[in-house]
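Form 12-C: Joint structure prediction
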Amino acid sequence: MGRTEIKDIGEFRLIQRIRDRYSKPSEFVPRGIGDDAASLNFPPNHLLLVTTDTLIEDIHFTLKSTIPYLLGAKSLAVNLSDIAAMGGIPRFFLLSLGIPKGYSISSLDRFYRGVSQLAESQGVFLVGGDLAASSKFIINGVVIGHCPPDQVIYRKGAQPGDYIFVTGPLGDAALGLEILRKRGLRPSDFGANGKTRGKDKELLGIIRRHLSPPARVREGRKIAELACATAMIDISDGLLADLRHLIEESQVGANLWLDQIPRSEAFEKWAPLYHLRPIDLALSGGEDYELLFTAPKEILEDKLSRSREIDLPFYPIGEVTPHSKKLSLWTKEKKGYSPSWLGYDHFRGPPKRSLKKDPQHS
Amino acid sequence: MGRTEIKDIGEFRLIQRIRDRYSKPSEFVPRGIGDDAASLNFPPNHLLLVTTDTLIEDIHFTLKSTIPYLLGAKSLAVNLSDIAAMGGIPRFFLLSLGIPKGYSISSLDRFYRGVSQLAESQGVFLVGGDLAASSKFIINGVVIGHCPPDQVIYRKGAQPGDYIFVTGPLGDAALGLEILRKRGLRPSDFGANGKTRGKDKELLGIIRRHLSPPARVREGRKIAELACATAMIDISDGLLADLRHLIEESQVGANLWLDQIPRSEAFEKWAPLYHLRPIDLALSGGEDYELLFTAPKEILEDKLSRSREIDLPFYPIGEVTPHSKKLSLWTKEKKGYSPSWLGYDHFRGPPKRSLKKDPQHS
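Section 2 - Result
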């Protein structure tokens, strides 16, 4: 049996295959793949939440430096993360692909397995999508979720005096990307199911943070249920860029305490070997997909202390200030800090300033 | 003032621009563009309907043979059509674009004007999307709608003895594409707002059917409210391909009466000049976006006669047969007919057979 390619199967048998294998019927899905639109049961009295994200080959990823399973999982995770950042419950997923005609069916199956295993673990149903031939691999994901109206958390709402929290260490994903750029991905690094396989477990763990980010859905729900967060966003563009989005929507300023930003042990060990200013990976690297939220410190601590079952790490990393104060970064020694780059803009790329200052980018 | 390009504005100012101009707040949209996900009010006790379609430059369209306004409108219309084919009410729209960095802001504005004018006329709200740089122009649209559960119409449900109906003439869109291929688009053909401007009104009308298809939302709702259609689909891949989808889902066969397939006057006049077998444009050309549905003939006629306000053309073009009969095509003289091609498959392109038989494709 030779290698079977997409063009050998054709569009309609491919849709049938995806439908049979990865789109199971359920009480939530009267009709999923196989009709003009999916028809879905929606919980009454909830707000509907919808988000979409596109990943394009050679812009967001290269086929050489990931594996299909992890790419599939990531295409769902980045969308789940947006629902998590609203405090919502993700429920339905649509996945549209532009696929090169010579792409293999077995790779596509691994891609969908990556999608469906994450989907199952989160109680999310694949209910539709669109397939087309394309010179580049293009992925568009849509997640639909819901939330009780009194629990939804927006980017706006942060108040001066609130503390700023993150749900986990930052910088690993950006470091993973740096390592991938320099070391490359080796065939022995990951199994077809995305499990790390090589010897360098710690290094591969960092790479994996970039290739298959988490989606803090459980954390987002807990924060929503605690009902004291005033604003929330997920960290996809980078801590600075996303904090800026939050304070702009909330019309406030912020002090950020650099020494309080949580970093993983692996990060502390490997980052200095791959980047001149590790803190800038944590500040501007993006794709960590931790949640960033604001809340009155005492109320949050009080609520946390009274709900014993909650076992969630919240790291305070700064405080909300009045609008006129803008965003300020402070070192442990209470000195102001200017990062060497500010995050990625899709149409401009990394800012020129960083290219000059950081020899590793040249 | 020089020509402003996407890269001069950058991602975040572009999002702000789209939000300010094309995404108005409303009672349905507590929060649209500008957060991690849109939060939306959903009517209680309705089924949620979701569909997505991708248009990729040089696969689905070329920038040379359309104008931004009509491309924008089409990217919404093809999704509205899928909601119409369920009998649903479209309500929300998400639009993700991959845009070449050198694309001009004024073209992008015209694109969004095409989107938003159709959206307004249909009561649909632009609530989100994603923007990325891309070598090709890539459009992914998502429409979310709703429908009372007892009115939704699926592809499955057709019964032997039902008649097969379409809502309008077929073949114009495919003919429009043929004309575009041979004649090309001229700068004088359409104004920036998509209005036909040249002398050849009739010819441009046919081209326009391809560039900016209708979405039969009103017709879909009327069919749903009549509550006698047993199955429905929109004609996007071509009459034969989509009828085949419908009968496969319904596990039935069908007789199609070729002489009953409605064709426009303009089609009858121009098609013979551009295609050897005009009937094959109507059968296999695709993109007409008329609705195809099945219903018991007497009940439909009875209901139509009793609801005077309904002014909708329903053309009977065949009948549903038992599953064993498959799909048969009949001429006026009751002879069987084999079309020269069967419709487009995204990963295989047009079947070889058509390329051999039809010299105009070579």
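Section 3 - Comments
Chain A has two domains: 6-147, 163-361. Confidence is low (pLDDT under 50) at residues 351-362 of chain A.
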